[in-house]
Specification:
Strand content: 15-25%
Helix content: 25-40%
Strand order of the largest sheet: 17-3-18-19-22
Largest sheet: 5 strands, parallel
GO molecular function, one term: hydrolase activity, acting on ester bonds
Organism: Flavobacterium album
Number of strands: 22
CATH class of the largest domain: Alpha Beta
Protein name: SGNH hydrolase-type esterase domain-containing protein
Number of helices: 10
Number of domains: 2
């Protein structure tokens, strides 16, 4: 009886008590963790190590291809020096329209549904060229919430992920998954893709199926484009095989998989073969550690066909969950992950993006979680140790208390009420913050290469009056300008699309 009365009283008083007494849990079900992280916490969670990286100690770089960036302190470390090869590829695209650039962007729920990555991709393609959304899985839990293409699939697929499977039937693909059709002679497994109306993504460019090795020699794929159906036989003789679905750009297609239940499938790639392409390999609950389970030979086979120039590791959300302020175990294990990636993708540059700010309730007040700064420092340490570039997303957001501002003070809000995940507006801003830092390093690289950066034009007057160039002596007296009216903040009229993927 006491328990019943207490619950009733709590529900009744909730209407009048401050809202922050009650934790928002609507989206925190996104925050799960992979099995390798759980094992790492249990094995090494209590390990400590003396911090040998002084905030004021100079980090001096070695020249790469004759280019040497100025020394940096640990506190301000960005590591542009370790993006020289990537920057040179961009320069060849910008100045000679030669070559192409490919980026693998690995992340967790922060990049779910192509958030952040779609805007990062758009910034690069707008400047350097390139058409297409890149590599897309066979199935995806975030498909309903992805806006960069329409992705549908039948229920008779079996999925194995490196987040929870140690010994898959066949090696994982570059996306950390491997997919198998379930035997069904009546209703074959299928996938369907349709291009969006977003700039640079208005067609599915050169759709190509990626699949693995098998003894099956009878499998085929029926490709349906409009009213036409074309049967294409599969030939799974190599570690990684490809099948071209169409040449050029198409609006959409459906693929039926025939007698193919023993063949490992990975996904489809969509790109026009020019400019920049960015593949989003997001997995909810990923700490980054499962990447260390990649099969080196299979990854090199993927790299032979796709050719990666930059790998982005954007993690941290799931590593914050356990309340520990000691991340030595994570720093050491992620350093090994980076070295393994260099074995899998020889010559690739690596960019580490730190955890974003996350708020936790302390008493009645939402504040930056006490684990954010120690984790971001550990991420910077393994970036320095592995000679990788680094973006401190926590400081770019505004540092301490920034997530609370993004949720409660920005109008409209930039993040969700779980004080962890960004909405579409916030994801765009985060992408811009990352792109601006990377582009700043690129402009510095061009200056070191002897390219003069054009002086940007002076900003137009805020009054909107056209500027006319005249000799100084002939300039009329500056008229009195009335102060600009404070802009009216209109109520957000965007109707959010119902998300059938995230748990309510």
């Amino acid at each position: 009886m006491i328990i019943v009365i207490s619950i009733a009283a709590l529900l009744g008083f909730r209407q009048v008590l401050p809202s922050k007494i009650f934790t928002e849990t609507g989206i925190t079900k996104n925050v799960v963790v992979d099995s390798l992280m759980l094992e790492a916490v249990e094995a090494d969670g209590g390990e400590t190590e003396k911090d040998t990286l002084s905030s004021n100690k100079k980090i001096v770089f070695e020249a790469v291809n004759g280019i040497k960036f100025p020394a940096e302190t640990f506190e301000d470390y960005k590591g542009y020096q370790h993006l020289v090869n990537f920057y040179e590829k961009l320069l060849q695209l910008e100045t000679k329209k030669q070559g192409k650039v490919r980026i693998a962007y690995f992340g967790d729920s922060m990049t779910d549904g192509d958030l952040i990555v779609k805007d990062f991709r758009a910034s690069l393609q707008e400047r350097f060229g390139g058409e297409g959304v890149g590599f897309v899985n066979i199935t995806s839990e975030s498909a309903p919430s992805r806006s960069t293409l329409t992705h549908q699939f039948s229920p008779n697929w079996k999925t194995q992920s490196y987040l929870n499977v140690k010994s898959p039937r066949s090696p994982f693909g570059v996306n950390g998954h491997v997919f198998f059709t379930k035997r069904d002679t009546v209703n074959p497994a299928w996938v369907r893709y349709k291009a969006s109306n977003i700039r640079h993504l208005t067609e599915l460019y050169n759709p190509t199926l990626f699949y693995g090795k098998s003894g099956n020699r009878k499998a085929a794929v029926d490709v349906i484009i409009g009213k036409d159906t074309i049967r294409k036989n599969l030939n799974p003789v190599n570690l990684v095989n490809t099948l071209s679905v169409a040449n050029g750009g198409i609006k959409g297609f459906k693929a039926n998989f025939i007698a193919s239940d023993s063949i490992p499938f990975y996904g489809f790639n969509f790109d026009d073969g020019r400019g920049v392409h960015v593949d989003n390999f997001s997995n909810r609950g990923n700490s980054g550690l499962p990447i260390g389970s990649f099969n080196t030979n299979v990854m090199r086979a993927f790299n032979d066909k796709l050719g990666y120039d930059l790998i982005v590791l954007h993690y941290g959300t799931n590593v914050l969950n356990y309340g520990s302020l000691n991340y030595t175990w994570y720093e050491k294990r992620m350093a090994r992950v980076v070295e393994h990636l260099r074995e899998c993708f020889p010559g690739v540059d690596i960019l580490i993006i730190s955890t974003a700010d996350k708020s936790t309730k302390y008493g009645l007040e939402m504040k930056t979680d006490s684990a954010v700064v120690p984790l971001s420092r550990a991420q910077k340490k393994y970036a320095v140790q592995t000679e990788s570039a680094y973006v401190n997303l926590y400081t770019l957001m505004g540092g301490d208390g920034s997530m609370v501002k993004w949720v409660d003070e920005e109008a409209p809000a930039l993040a969700n009420k779980d004080y962890t995940h960004f909405n579409f507006r916030g994801a765009k801003k985060v992408s811009d913050l990352i792109w601006n830092q990377i582009n700043g390093g690129y402009e510095q690289y061009k200056r070191l290469r002897g390219f003069k950066t054009p002086t940007p034009p002076a900003p137009a007057p805020q009054t909107g009056t056209p500027v006319t160039e005249q000799p100084k002596a002939e300039q009329p007296k500056t008229p009195t300008v009335q102060p600009a009216k404070k802009p009216i903040v209109k109520k957000d009229t965007i109707t959010p699309k119902k998300d059938t993927t995230h748990a309510p």
